[in-house]
Amino acid sequence: MFYREAGQFKASYAADQAIYPIRQDKVGILILFAFALVVVPLIAPQYWLNSILIPFLIFSLAALGLNILTGYCGQLSLGTGGFMACGAFFSYKITIAFPEVNIIIVFLLAGLGTALVGVLFGLPSLRIKGFYLAVATLAAQFFLIWMFNKFGWWTNYSPSGVISAPPREVFGNVTVTGASAEPESKYIFLLLLVSFLALMAKNMVRSRVGRSWMAIRDMDIAAEIIGIRPMLAKLSAFAVSSFMIGISGALWAFTYTGSVEALAFDINRSFEVLFMIIIGGLGSIMGSFMGAAFIVLLPILLDNLPALLGIPLSIELVSHLRLVIFGSLIIFFLIVEPHGLARLWQIGKEKLRLWPFPY
Amino acid sequence: MNLRSLTIGIGSGLLAIPIVGFLLQGLSQLDPAIFFAWDFYAEVVVKGLLQGVMYALVALGFVLIFKASSIFNFAQGAMVLFAALAMVGFMEWGVHWIPAFLLAGVVMVLVAFLIEKVVLRPMVNQPHIILFMATIGIFFVLDGVGQTIWGSNVKALDIGISRQPIVAFQGSLLPNGMYLDPTELVAAVVGALMVALLAVLFQYTKVGRALRAVADDHQAALSVGIPLKTIWAIVWSVAGIVALVAGVMWGSSLGVQFSLSLIALKALPVLILGGFTSIPGAIIGGLIVGAGEQVGEVFLGPLVGGAIQDWFAYMLAMLFLLFRPQGLFGEKIIERV
Amino acid sequence: MTETAAPATAEANPMAPPERRFGAPMLTVDSISLSFGGVKALTNISFDILEHEIRAIIGPNGAGKTSMLNVINGFYHPQEGTITYKGNVRSAMRPHMAAAQGIARTFQNVALFKGMSTLDNIMTGRILKMHNVRAPETGVWGLDHVLSFGAGALDFVTQCLYWGPNEKEEIRQRTYCEEIIDFLEIQDIRKTPVGRLPYGLQKRVELARALAMEPELLLLDEPMAGMNVEEKEDMSRFILDVNDEFGMTIALIEHDMGVVMDISDRVVVLDYGRKLADGTPDEVRSDQGVIDAYLGVAH
Question: Is ipTM strictly over 0.95?
């Protein structure tokens, strides 16, 4: 009875095409955002901020990027880790060389650089599709990680091969990067940045660009016959996707771990983000967030569950079981709801509309 | 794939080896960092070819499943690991390697039936990309279960192949002869045998014909009464046994360990080159990738600091894809509107 | 063939439909031959389609009808022959060029974007007509390229920001698409994902998407396939309306002889990739070769 649309008539196309046409949804998301922005930094314990919320936001951005490429445009990519590495190392080099430049600009530039790399490695998609394209993206993944690992120039010849994020400030004096930054400031910075980019993504997806991506995904031959240029659509998807993934990699290095080496972005990272969008829902902005939350929370849950239940399990066993549970969950989701958590959420809302009536 | 294209392929391959050799010789004149000598080159090529057969053994499993169900089985590597672990597990109980091999084969057949029942059957009509992602899930499950049961230590797999390198081809061209690894030689023989067996299976048996029908069109196969579920169980079982053979060879060579499952990632460029649906293509693709990788690493690697085998095979595959998206021997992808 | 098919004059028969005026040949295919490997799909086909007419292409299965449409809109490239469209002679078309020049088509096996709603599918059809930012045409070669690139980039930015020129454009195009939706009477399914629609409605949505392209030449591949009598009458009415109101030239492949005879102005008959007959429905109906190969005789 709370979730009724009765009385909500759209008198204009603009109202009909809003992101959240149902008033309850719009109010709900604004409340959630306000809560996340104002209340959470005040009450959340440091552990939650550092180990859960911050990686959640960063992974959401990466998942968003990959979802645009794979979920909306249908180009399977296993190169996410490599692109994250691009963002991290590009921003490191830029900010070390030009420390006065605002870090947000640095991130944006690193994102643009990653977008160029993404377009380069996306060129094969014009000829090849499906699994074959996945292999091409694997080439990107392996090559990029090798390059960042091999050439000391990227790490300023640091002997350990690790880069450390220098502290940088925004809005005058709030440090948001590096080891000295407060978790609250990092969190708020990330929340604002990621929300902004998510809004951009949502706008893209409901405009021409998004429709051309989805057309290519659904039937690229028909898309071409309508006049969509496959090259433009695919490469723009690669560009936008790599932009976001690059920024997420930069954020990973600068606001989460503080220091990073190329191997932190290896093939496992690519799979991790792919699972986020599978479980969260391919072709869904909200799903990217849900999938990221799921994958970030799951290991923590699994690590703590045996203790909570009072079952003593060795760490090794837990890590093996984690693999098994992970794999089973993926299979489960794909069987039960291939469209992921986002679709389950939609179904839940539809049921809520009828509540308390059964149908 | 007929005799004519086979001879052309092998002929041009054999020709390519000395041509590349001359190119590298020229390069080494220009750049002192590259060392080139013909006997050294020959050794590297042969080692690469043998290594390539090892890759091909893994790739064969992929091809089988893809041929019969158009599913790209990402879990093939995990199946290799699981099979090898099973066999070593039995051997650790004191079983001789031959019955251990057979028992491990039974295990893999059971795994295949389980996979068919739990994963494939509920997902019959899903698009291929969803099925591919399900196989990633299977990968993790097999990996985790395998390590839970048998632990994650490296295990030795000894089936009696000597570790002493064999010296061969001693002659005027190669005064010191060439060092060959007996395990890889055995693998080459085994690989050839398996390809022959599988080719016979597919071409001449009733089951093989059914497999080919299913690979072509599920609906049509169903409508002539071919039991889809049984066929899939058979295919995955055969793939499991192929994985076992690959696991035995790799395990003898490297020891049975977690990284075995990642060998599957190396098999991908092999599949690209050979074509996803061709059994001989898997072997030839393997040979090309193996030789290319070794030659690239040894002769071109020093130019950029080494360790290029991480990505060299993939770059090679990607280049191939641009010119021939279906691989050397794969079926041409025709899009119908 | 350039004479118009005019029925009896108005004085002789006041109930006769008004004379239809056709223009010059909009599309001419000349000696087109197409083969795939060893299979010859089309052999030496020549015919034309006049402006404003409804041209039917008929023939038994496998005659090459769909291949012919595929050649016209650039999906297949013929080995021999030329296509002349609006005066330009080409040996082959490219699909997006065909779209940009006003050729739209529907497919035998409905080629809709199954992941999107009806409205989104139709809006996608408008993609060539939608611009948030237009680059001025200066006529200077290099400058034009730079300007259009800049306009494209700016266009993209406005899409990211949505509110502003992008929203205005979206609403403008939505209004246009809603007119098409009204025209084809599919209002109540506009938000439904097309994968869930019954086959007949999917075909109608596909027609809507083709119309959204504002084509001058509309190619319909078996638009009535799988429909019942009522649906066929609806679809025939739509096709005739489209031809009447918008003056659109239509080429259609169809198996239902009743429909073909009723709505088409001229007919081409294909068999085994060759042209059997070419003329008005009456002429074709009485052609012996066509009767033998395809129509049969009423017993």
Answer: no
